[in-house]
Design brief:
heterotrimer; A alpha+beta; B mainly alpha; C mainly beta; B: mainly alpha; Cytochrome Bc1 Complex, Chain D, domain 2; 3-stranded mixed β-sheet; 10 helices; 7 strands; 40% helix; 7% strand; disordered N terminus; C: mainly beta; 5-stranded mixed β-sheet; 10 strands; 57% strand
């Protein structure tokens, strides 16, 4: 749970500091979604249509501080013309209370299929993003991020 | 010989003028003092430094609006802005003979010069005005010195920092002087500096004052927290400002 | 009192793809948090964001509780003509906030 980096930190202080983290971890325990629930949500939205991995680039920081506000950037390789554009982007989580985090609807007027936002992450997980093109094809990308546990959480 | 040396010491002490500014000794020596932002991820530092991505600017912008509002607006007196002012707070107010922080100074302006009532501590308006004033000193070094008038406040603030309290029986100094840089669960313990405040904290998902942070620290060690705006916290804020002197003011900072 | 911040370039070349940023002050109360007495804090979130370019919807988003507080978005648009970008946020109860910015396209 805790890494000791120096012998200067006495065992007694260590135990106390540990107590800070345990006693202060009062983050509500909400039933989190599972991988299966995420897949169900994907199924509910897109049915049994084929989803191909690729074209969707998901960028998340390797370490996401405490998960309250994690920057995400989604870029999809698309010319964004009237004939060929990204219609919809959906962000899915296998670990948050709800599996769908956000949806973005683009148009040829978007010019570039690139969206940045900030999301909440209820723990270390691999975020899955699915993009729906105007021709109905579905593409996906994913990115893992490590959400650190705060030392003291006062709630 | 020993007696002679003692006499010299005595004379030396007696001769030194009382107002000599000497930096007080802190457990972390000046060259090792670093801002709380050194313990954040590069992504969070980038967010703090981007005037648009930094959500603290929602409060700065509201503060700018409030600053110019009303018949007796703040701007009416402070036409040239308040660059650098926040780096010298908390400061001694001769009128009330008390130490006041930036929030207190804004409220004194309201009651003394503007014919307005004091804003409640941690109200959105007071936070916004404080953020607007503090932001004008962004990037400037904090510069707060102990004077004869503020000596007792410095001592009481320092005593608060050094005193074990709460059910966990921990003092601020044990984490932020003795164990900074080490891991506590997923966090790296910071030096506990005040230079990012008022700040946007992820855990709050909100903007808040240094006193709100201190209130959380006290709650964290399961001590009875002080009231926001209390003299105890203002004294502690003063001790922290002297301790953080030389560090750049980063408000609106972003903290975990 | 809700503060909105927008970032829209003042000028652009015709056909240029421009970066748009928009942020609104909102708690985005998820509905998954407990208060100090153990009671569930009810959900209170913005559910819809829309961006209109001279009246035409060019980008929109559905927000769920997984969107961070004080939501910010960065996205792009093709600058075809001078005019205005209007940004509209609507919450779960139908209340909405909006702001707009002008652009000169040459």
């Amino acid at each position: 749970m805790m890494k000791t980096q120096s012998p200067l930190l006495s065992r007694r202080t260590m135990l106390r500091l540990g107590a800070v983290s345990v006693s202060m971890l009062m983050i509500p325990r909400i039933a989190a979604a599972t991988e299966d629930e995420m897949n169900e949500a994907i199924n509910a939205m897109f049915g049994d249509r084929v989803i191909t991995e690729g074209r969707v680039n998901v960028d998340l920081p390797p370490i996401a501080e405490n998960g309250f506000s994690v920057p995400i950037d989604i870029f999809i390789d698309s010319p964004m013309t009237e004939d060929d554009y990204v219609k919809q982007i959906v962000v899915f989580s296998p670990r948050n209370p709800l599996p769908v985090l956000a949806q973005y609807h683009l148009t040829p007027m978007s010019g570039r299929a690139d969206v940045s936002a900030r999301i909440r992450l209820g723990g270390t997980q691999s975020i899955r993003v699915i993009a729906e093109m105007n021709d109905g094809t579905l593409w996906s990308g994913a990115k893992q991020t490590l959400v650190t546990l705060a030392a003291c959480v006062i709630d | 010989m020993r007696l002679l040396a003692a006499c010299f010491l005595f004379v030396g002490a007696a001769c030194s003028p009382q107002t000599t500014q000497r930096e007080p000794d802190f457990p972390i020596e000046a060259s090792l003092r670093v801002s709380g932002s050194s313990f954040l991820t590069p992504e969070t530092v980038a967010q703090q430094n981007d005037d648009f991505e930094n959500p603290g600017y929602l409060w700065v912008e509201r503060g700018a609006d409030l600053f110019e509002q009303g018949e007796t607006s703040c701007e009416g007196c402070h036409k040239n802005g308040l660059e650098g002012v926040a780096t010298h707070y908390p400061a001694f107010d001769t009128g009330t003979q008390t130490l006041v922080n930036l929030e207190g100074r804004i409220n004194l302006c309201r009651t003394r010069h503007q014919g307005l009532t004091a804003l409640p501590y941690e109200s959105d308006q007071l936070l916004s005005l404080t953020a607007f004033v503090a932001e004008q000193s962004r990037g400037l070094p904090i510069s707060v010195e102990v004077t004869p008038q503020t000596q007792s406040a410095f001592e009481s603030g320092g005593a608060y920092f050094m005193t074990r309290r709460g059910q966990l029986n921990l003092a601020c100094t044990q984490c932020h002087d003795d164990n900074w840089g080490k891991q506590l669960r997923g966090d790296t313990i910071s030096q506990g500096h005040s230079n990012g405040f008022p700040a946007y904290r992820f855990e709050w998902e909100d903007f808040g004052s240094l006193h709100r942070r201190l209130h959380d620290c006290d709650t964290g060690v399961r001590a009875e927290p002080m009231e926001l705006g209390s003299q105890t916290y203002i004294d502690l804020e003063f001790y922290l400002a002297v301790r953080a002197s030389g560090l750049e003011l980063e408000s609106p900072g972003i903290r975990r | 009192m809700t503060t909105i911040r927008l970032s829209v370039p003042e000028t652009a070349d015709r056909g240029e793809i421009i970066e748009l940023r928009a942020m609104i002050q909102h708690e985005m109360e998820s509905g998954f948090r407990f208060g100090s007495r153990g009671e569930m804090i009810p959900q209170d979130i913005i559910t819809k964001f829309e961006c209109f370019y001279n009246g035409t919807l060019v980008f929109s988003s559905d927000f769920h509780p997984g969107v961070a507080a004080n939501p910010i978005l960065k996205f792009y648009a093709r600058a075809n003509e001078s005019g205005s970008f209007e940004f509209v946020w609507t919450d779960q109860n139908g209340q909405s906030w909006s702001d707009s910015a002008q652009i000169e396209v040459s």
